Amino acid sequence: MIIIHDKRLPAEYVRGLKAKLPNVSFVPFSPPVYSDRKVYESILCHTDIYFFELDEKTIIHAPSVGEKYLRILREMNMTLIKGNMDPKEAYPDTALYNAIRAGNTVFCKTRCIDAVVLEEIKKKKLDIIEVSQGYARCSVLKVNDKALITSDKGIAAAARGTGIEVLLLPAGQIQLPGEKYGFIGGAYGKTPSGKLIFLGDFKLHPQAEKIEDFLFKHSVLYIGVEGLPLYDAGGLII
Question: In CATH, what number is assigned to the domain containing residue 46?
Answer without folding.
Answer: 3.75.10.10
